[in-house]
Amino acid sequence: MHTLSILIALAAATVVAALTWQHLRYLKARREVVHDRQPLLYPKQTFHVVTFLKAHSGEDIVESVRKLQSTLASLENAQLIYAGQAAFTALQSKQLPEVDWDAVVLTAYPSRAAYDALAASPGYSAALGHFDRHYSHGLQRRRGLNLAIPLLLLGVRLRDLLRRVPPRTPFRPAAQEQLDDRTRQAPERMARFDALRPLGEGAVVVVNLLRDGTPEQRAANRAYGLQMMGLFAENAHGPMHMGRAVTLEGDARFNAVAIVYYPGIDYFLQMARSTFFNGIVGNKQPGDTLAIPTIPITQRL
To answer: Could you tell me the pTM of the whole model?
Structure first.
């Protein structure tokens, strides 16, 4: 009986150690690679906002976002969590005007009421006045889900190992005829990453506004999502911010916001042109999506 107790204690300690290790390596990537400032623990009523920004003609976007950060820092109740320079629009929402956005920022406020009060203030208008155009959408970030994501991915990885699922990486390049139409039509957009390499090559962060489609589209989308979760688990990256979408301006309606980290520009490009991705991307059938890959610039502000 004593031996059994020791074995149970050792097994429990091993599980705790594995969960702790998994969480810490995702936290390390969040802080040191993505430069994301999201606290792990925060009040339930905290309200997040994703803002898409278009710079004035001829102005440097990093400098414009730096001015935004400086103005927000002077206001009470506003915290900048993440800022990224946009590479291109991967998927254009049918609900929103087509804008070649230059940057995306994620900010946090003590509550929806605190955000509404601040958004109506001259100081907040001054902060956004550094840009030619802007569009904001709310995110009710789910604390428990976001804390659990690294642990869920560890479970996915263990499942794949037990089932002997073949590794998805290193990626195998797809032949031209194997490319999905969306990938085949995007080489000039993908090339825009090269201009952003001086900002940093270690992370690509894709900001998504997602609207559910028909039941058939949702079923197909789940098949794509399960494969991508396997990839995330295999290579220790994936969702950083997940939650319910909240309309703040206009009449566009989305169900969710998902902000997803990929470990580097070359990784992202190799994935986009791989047999793995082009074999599953046809199953990606959201009802409507705005998806913008970005390069982190938070550390430059």
So the answer is: 0.93
